[in-house]
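Hi V.,

You were right to ask for the full record rather than a summary. Here it is.
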Amino acid sequence: MQLGYSELAKLTHIPAQDLAAVEDGHRQLTHAELQSLSNALDVSVDVLFQEEDEVAPPAQSDSVLIPVDQLAALLDQMKKG
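Predicted structure:
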């Protein structure tokens, strides 16, 4: 499934320009935004951080920010399908 910024923005209620800023490394997602992204994609949050067969450890706090490079890689993968 391939989604553009505008489609993903509608599903997540995160403005398209904010999604682009995240991908460009100018912004990070909050925990709530990450949850919204995982809900929109119908996957668990840990799946968003998977690399091959590896799963990142669960977040320890609701105030955790997602590293830009990890989110940028995810958005790149989504664009490529």
